[in-house]
Amino acid sequence: xxxxxxxxxILLTDSCLSQGYLGTFGSQSLYxxxxxxxxxxxxxxxxxxxxxxxxxxDTTTLYWVSDASLEDDLLSALKPxxxxxxxxxxxxxxxxxxxGQQILEDFCAPVLYRTSTSSLFALRxxxxxxxxxxxxxxxxxxxxxxxxxxTPLVPVPEDDIARVGSILKSLKYNxxxxxxxxxxxxxxxxKDVTWLTGEAPESSIESRHSFHPDARKAAxxxxxxxxxxxxxxxxxxxxxxxxxxxxxRYSGTDGSDxxxxxxxxxxxxxxFGSTRxxxxxxxxxxxxxxxxxxxxxxxxGISFKSNVELCLFGGEEQGLLGSKAYARDLRDADANxxxxxxxxxxxxxxxxxxxxxxxxxxxxxxxxxxxxxxISAFYSPELEVGFTPACCSDHQSFHEQGFASTxxxxxxxxxxxxxxxxxGDISNRTGxxxxxxxxxxxxxxxxxxxxxxxxxx
Length: 457
Ligand SMILES: *[C@@H]1O[C@H](CO)[C@@H](O)[C@H](O)[C@H]1NC(C)=O
Ligand SMILES: *[C@@H]1O[C@H](CO)[C@@H](O)[C@H](O)[C@H]1NC(C)=O
Ligand SMILES: *[C@@H]1O[C@H](CO)[C@@H](O)[C@H](O)[C@H]1NC(C)=O
Ligand SMILES: [Zn+2]
Hints:
The protein contains 13 helices and 20 strands. By secondary structure, it is α+β, with helices and mostly antiparallel strands. A six-stranded mixed β-sheet has the order 11-12-15-13-16-19, sandwiched between helices. It has a four-stranded antiparallel β-sheet with strand order 2-3-1-4, with no helix packed on it. Strand 2 (21-25) and strand 3 (28-31) form a beta hairpin.
């Protein structure tokens, strides 16, 4: 039996424990160290920093469930007194799941670790098990499928941080950039997001859940839209059964291999018992921002000096699975990434609050967040910028592979959207603010223009 260490600390040292790093989920980090590291005490770190948990030998995947970073009032409204009762009873009663190949009758995933805000399950590695577990999650839960073997955390190299630092240092307000980012059109964003959610009469999208056929339809549509702006797009599968990643590229004119990457996730989650998963905010808003940037690139006729990729990931809701696969591919290819920015939930704020921009307080490269904050003050001064604990979207996959990255989010605070992970997450509702969505998309686009450099037509 192997042992898992669950700790509040992210170990960056080159210890035997950090070699077994599985990832950070909510406020906890998981490590699966080698047997020698744990048993023989041949460890250079104190095991006391966390809980030690045994993992059954037939486990192929761990499934971590924790509370998302929600506003207190929202969390207490959603969370029952016994938060695990429902999940446990449905698991022990066996959930009949049709995964398209066979019915799994007696699904059972042992619980390895539990607190009031988190639970760890041992899976034997079939996509149907993810569906079984995920379908039992409450809306305030975030689930992460964690595959073996661990990939040790790669720190972002000093040179890469210095490169972002030098962009930051020479940053000046640029008139051309101000007019380019203002091409972004709210009526067009409305059209795009309502196609993605199925709110538009001409859209037949019911759900963009990773396993739903309509998610594939959405992937092809997104690729088509972005290709029409001059990019080359590819649908890249990463795991059987999951809707693919959409990777679109504009080749740079300076002949270097440097790359600037903007992303969002286009998969979504709905409510228990409903097949609708419109994902208008999570993350139809981020997807729409990426589409708006692509459309503006196409309309303006600019080209970039550096290579640029716009990526729409699948499998985010099952544990950042699409971005994990792509970040690993880019690390294997020794990609020269200047920076990457993930957009996840951009449109909602509490009614009465000013428009905001949230940047992650733990996961990511502080220099990239600083750059985004400064660019926001130039081109979208109406945004109130601050930190958010709503961490852990797809930028985390890049962060863990040592790429300079950050995230943009809709609030300078925790998640306040009452339709989070809910089948009611449409765009036509109180608190869904297209002006904020445009303001944040302008910041993403301006950061891209500053970081990649561009040639006017
Ligand atoms: C704005 O940026 C573009 C692209 O880097 C550059 O060609 C142009 O000179 C800049 N404009 C000003 C006023 O600095
Ligand atoms: C990466 O790109 C930068 C330009 O942004 C360039 O200066 C550097 O030489 C490149 N690094 C490698 C290893 O090619
Ligand atoms: C938005 O919803 C309201 C009802 O809540 C409806 O009257 C209105 O027509 C909807 N707008 C659009 C553009 O669908
Ligand atoms: Zn999301």
